Amino acid sequence: MLKLKFKRITIKDMDEISHFEIRQADLNEMRVVSGSNKPLATLLKSAIERSTEWVEICLDNNTGEVYTIYGLGNCEGFGVPWMIGSPSITKHKKDLLQYSKLIIKEMLNQFPLIHNYVDSRNKAHIRWLKHMGFNFYDERDFVINGVPFKYFYKCRE
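Now predict its structure.
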């Protein structure tokens, strides 16, 4: 039996992720970008609403524990990917890395370019993005609400 399950969700499925536990680094980044200390449920709802293309969850097929929530928005014809994880995300690290490559390929099938910003302080996120083949614009930081962020992108091959 498969360990992981992937499921598309919408705002209507908020109850399904109501017990999602988020990594502190991801919560910090969401709060900086949003410019508020709103509750996690409010931040998640906003992220899902901005994901004009789709949102998916990755969960344990046996326990139903949600490991990641990720989505894809559309900004002027280019894809805007995002992902947040739970502290348990490393339970299936190898499988998640493999699936991540497939998901990124799916995003690039939809858009010729996908891009976003990542909190410069989050070295784990930056390592993951580099491992997934993303590039960083000139390695310079951009400041969002007083916090340094790096612009990352990947083009369709």
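The mean pLDDT is 92.
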